[in-house]
Amino acid sequence: MPRSRFTHSILWGCLLLTSLLLWFAVANYRNAEPVAQSILRGMSLSLGQAIEALAVRDPSLKALADFSSHDSAYFSLINRQGVIRFHRNPDLIGSRIEDQRYLPVAAAPVITEERIRLGTGEVVFETQQQLHLPSETMVLRLALHTWQADQIIRRARTGLMVIVVLLTVAWGFGLWVLRLQQRDLQRREEMTRHEQLVRLGELGAVLAHEVRTPLAGIKGFAQLLRERVQDARQQEYAGKIVTESERLEGLVTDLLTYTRQETMQSGSAVVLELVQDAWESFVAEAVQAGVGVQITGAIARPVACPADRLRQLLLNLFSNALQAMPDGGTVQINLSNDGEQATILISDSGPGFAEESLKRAFDPFYTTRASGSGLGLAVCHKIVAGYGGIMTVANGSSGGANVTLQLPLVKECA
Amino acid sequence: MGRFRSFFFLIAAAIVVVMLQRPAEAFWGFGSGGEGGTSGLDLVQGYDRNTVVTTVGRVAAAPDSSADPVTIELVAGSERFVVVLGPRWYLQDDHLDWKIGDTVTVRGSKAQGKDGRSYLLAQWISSPSGSPLVLRNETGRPAWAGGFKGGQQGAGQQQRGGTGGGRRGR
């Protein structure tokens, strides 16, 4: 299974587990209150039955004075006239009840229950139910402490909080590990790429020694042959040998440039002068292909890049632009700077980059042309990066390719 | 190292945010005034005649005059009460001479706090010197709320005032 797919599977599994745990904790918390209410209701019914049994046994209600329960806050018996016949506080016996909440229970055999706040600030569970004595029917008002029953709610709330905290910690830790893993992966990829470049460099060095020298010989003899032979057809063949030798020479040069360790050499270049100079090399080719050039803007200070490197870079880019417009067009070069960096935007009116080319533009040996080496943009990118700049490629809004170079300006002397 | 630190800061912040969802009284001990601290009760102004009891017990913890409100712990049979006398400012001139083991009689409104402890918001409490310390009138109106003069009563003295304008229970 690919690594990213495996990571996604793990993430989905963790999300599922998180949802399950949260659902369980929330459901447990939501169920806790009805459970606590049921416990209080059951307790109230049991105590009510015990009080009724005592009251029936002793209609004078004196026996109730000895009845006590840790769970009850108080209880009282109220007759239909609203007179308190019994109360846990003896001072209230015989007085009239101040509220009318007993009336519905006195009128019909219903049980009411609600949580009320007492004058002390305590919230109690109060029930009212009918209590039948042989001589009359009264209302039993019973208030229960809720702390014990509410333990269930508190535990469920604590459980919910613990699960949320643990999940937060677990996700934080997991994401941190994932980030470390991704960085490790990136580092490995960079190392592999570096190793490939080193091997490429070794290959380049071999090419330099083993191919360049005999190639120079082949080219030299072909040029000599072209001058010496009289037959036009033989001259043409010799010319082809020279052209192909030059192409091979260019390929070897590009390869050596790409594999060479780019070191920061001190030096600066005036961009406008170099742009004009580099374009001069292509004037004949541009005129033949019907390609015009427009240079706009200016850069206030020289850029911190040696002139020969910048020139090589511009030659590669202009060559690419011309090759993209065999039937004519325009190359626009816009120069600007923001105080710290110079920006060189080279736009052409060719077909632009394909989607795949945009992604792989700077990959060495990637080319869409039959005769290209695929090293031009890779070399440019390497030079720009080597001098602390940024190179990007994109397609213009009205077609064509845009290549942007950002290079640091030479620092101003104070 | 910086990454480790920011990661643990993030975790600590998440825990603090979750914990802050809890009611404030669960963190701070006894609050000042009538907040009731961890009990969730109105310890200073609260009273309910429905829950009034008179109980006799032994002092398990002498009054702490630095606490607010001032309390005594009492053991009566198998039950342990926190007897709430009143605000510190009101009792600062009284001689609270109870010692551990003293037998006292106390009348007051009983309540169970959110911390699970039983509280007795005292109306009066007997004192080793003989004269009871009256803190509220019969209806529960506290002496510190005005309208009646509380304090330690001598033999034959009448409690004055007591209009019953305090907070009433249902």
TrEMBL record, chain A:
Reactions that this protein is recorded to catalyse: ATP + protein L-histidine = ADP + protein N-phospho-L-histidine
InterPro entries recorded: HATPase_C_sf (IPR036890), HATPase_dom (IPR003594), His_kinase_dom (IPR005467), HisK_dim/P_dom (IPR003661), HisK_dim/P_sf (IPR036097), Sig_transdc_His_kin-like_C (IPR004358)
A molecular function GO annotation: phosphorelay sensor kinase activity
Residues annotated as domain Histidine kinase: 206-411
Source taxon at top rank: Bacteria
Pfam families: HATPase_c (PF02518), HisKA (PF00512)
Keyword annotations: ATP-binding, Kinase, Membrane, Nucleotide-binding, Phosphoprotein, Transferase, Transmembrane, Transmembrane helix, Two-component regulatory system
Enzyme class: transferase
Protein name: histidine kinase
Organism annotation: Trichlorobacter thiogenes
Automatic annotation (TrEMBL), chain B:
Biased composition range(s): Gly residues: 147-170
Entry superkingdom: Bacteria
Family matches, as Pfam families: MamS_MamX (PF26390)
Domain Magnetosome protein MamS/MamX: 62-126
Protein's name in the database: Magnetosome protein MamS/MamX domain-containing protein
InterPro entries (UniProt xref): MamS_MamX_dom (IPR058837)
Source organism (scientific name): Trichlorobacter thiogenes
Region (Disordered): 137-170
